[in-house]
Amino acid sequence: MAETDLSEVVIVDEPLTSSNYENWKVYMKNYLSNLNLWGIVNGTESKPDEVNEYNTWMTRNEMALSAIKTSCGPKMVPHLHGVDSAKEAWDQLASMQSPEITQETSVALEIQDDDDDAVPETQVFTCQKSPNRNVSSNSSFGEQMIPLDLYDEDTSDAVSEVEESFADAVIRLQKTVRDRNSGWCDDKPDYIRFRPLYKALTKGDWRTAKEIIEDHPEGLRANITSRGDTALHAAVVSGKLSTVKALLKLLPPEALEAKSSSGDAPIFLSAADGSTEIAKVMVKKNNRVLRIKNQHGFIPLVISILYEKEEMFCYLYSVTPMEELDPEKSKNGASFLLGAINAEMFDVALEALELYPKLAISKDKFGIPAIFLLALKSYIFPSGSRFGFWQRCMYSSCLCVIPGVKDLQEKKIKHVQVLELLKVICSAIGHMTDEELKNGKVYDSMLVAATNGNIEVFMELFNANPSLLYTSTTASRKTLYHQAVMSRQENIFNFISSMGQRDIRATHKDNSDNNLLHYAGMLPLSSLLDRISGAALQMQREIQWFQEVEKIVQPKYKESLNKDGETPAEVFTEQHKALKKDGEVWMKETANACMLVSALIATVMFAAAFTVPGGNDQSTGTPFFLKTPAFTIFIVSDAISLFASCTAILMFFSILTARYAEQDFLKSLPQRLIIGLAALFISIAAMMAAFGATLVIVLHNSITWAYIPVTLLASVPVVLFGLLLFPLFLDIVLSTYGTGIFTWHKVYLNNNE
């Protein structure tokens, strides 16, 4: 068989050189392991004594050695001459990865006698590496180098100088090796040259970073990234407190004020990340960083509250000079106030307003005042909090202190604080001129409050300046009345209506000749509709809105045409086609599901009436337990369940066969659904009562203890049905038979008195 020429075999992708040993080692180890030769190389398969085993071992050793030599580059092969062991070759290559100096190095030294006229004598000192030792980047000159030809005792000083000079050469060699291993490039920009430093610092590898800094001290202050970050920026990003502390020892205080190209000093990175301990050591080194500003003009305190880092904010708030929040000096005070509102730290916002009252009407860098932000955030006020029935009860009582509802207590405290904050801000707005109101976005805040249904902000602004009620949009001339109807905000609409001149306000038209009833006919945003469960109930609420607004406009406006030639009724029909269809589908699907359950109950209860528990007397046909209370309960429950389920079937069937006109969604369809759901609930409850009575009859003389658990288990389906469907049932009842959506303005009138 022909012998394979190993020189032509490709073992690794890249032959071994002086700079790729680590990659080569991985490839070779995998290759030798696949050939089952790795044991020869790492020494686990030692040379055997037995002849046959020795021959086999030698063959495998030659294969491994040949593979190693074949994978070496031209400059590495000479180092393996005379090596006949694969393990020895592997170890030799591994040892060569520590940098070596040449086998013999000569240094010429000129020695000058005391006589100035004497000719300098040149002597040569030769140094060579110690036997079996390498000069590593971590070795000292004295340990690794042995001076050989020291010719004269009188030249001891000269020899000492040579040793020092040679030691410097070795140190430079070590630096060169470290630079080479780390990919250092002297001819590249700083952000490329110091990339190894950036990597080491971001990983928190201070040992490597320190070596690079010692070799290149300029890296301490250089821009080591393309973004202009310094070494301290990178250390702060790592989040390693020990690395930051070690680096700060090498830096002067002013280095902490260095900014990146984005205008951020290291303290800003710490403030945004919430690394409080890192911020503390930087402030201790240089407290001027508390006043430094980024590209937006923000100080670190503002950054911490904008990023909602509570612990960091508390620290910076305790050490930052409060004059930095003065609205006369910068926008930091306004930004701080808005940040506190966003973070729902209303107590902090009140403290800032107490210190600088002008912050109430100041705008931040982006032109946003505090009142505008409050108008946007309706959910931070009581009217915007969506509580369930029990939550509302506990919120309005003292039960908030009970464990488990502590969050309600905290929310109630925040509501008190934000209402106090609103009053302070609006008291300042009451003294503003019309021009100041416009520039301060107060008119815009009024429109935003009307759109979001933020009745607290709306009322306080009105109390501060009643003329704000005449606010309208500049572009379309929409009034607050239009906005309230368009956004389906009954609280705002009721409040405006309670202020008088309702009929006059209802006559106003916008630029497209849309009157108030046109806006009632327009479909609102889906987010507003989603507050109501079920497309059918959404359609019902839309019809209620249209009819209520129709009551307050003059008759001529009911047929008024807009610029598109449409009456309000036509606008309503056109824009509610899809919602009407969705409501029909929702009603039919609900009726189908409920009718199926009702039919099953009716079938079972009808059969149960003719198969009484305990059996009948064969001669008279009279049930044996006819006169027992349990039998009476069974018969009554069975009859109730049967009649109720039949009623439910009829109601749900009528829903399936309805015509589904617009007006049907107002009363007809919801009434049928209410009756059907109520009848279904009664039938299920009666069925479980009949089942319990049956078990009592059957087990009356044997397992009497089973009555209680059976009764409890029988109540489980009834309770579950009630819990799951009661919210929907209650919504339908209140929406259909409730007091209406335009009756709550009396509450607002009483509050204002």
What are the main properties of this structure?
3 strands, disordered C terminus, mainly alpha, about 5% strand
Structure description:
By secondary structure, the chain is mainly α. Among the domains are: 6-95, no CATH class; 104-182, no CATH class; 321-471, no CATH class; 586-737, no CATH class. The protein is 57% helix and 3% strand. It has 36 helices and 3 strands. It has a 3-stranded antiparallel beta sheet. α12 packs parallel to α14 (300-306), α24 packs antiparallel against α25 (490-498) and α29 (535-552) crosses α32. The protein is flat and about 115 Å long. The chain starts with 20 loop residues before the first helix and ends with a helix. Residues 1-8, 98-155 and 744-753 have low confidence and may be disordered. The chain crosses the membrane at residues 366-382, 590-610, 630-653, 673-699, 705-730. It holds the Pfam family Ank. Residues 586-697 form the PGG domain.
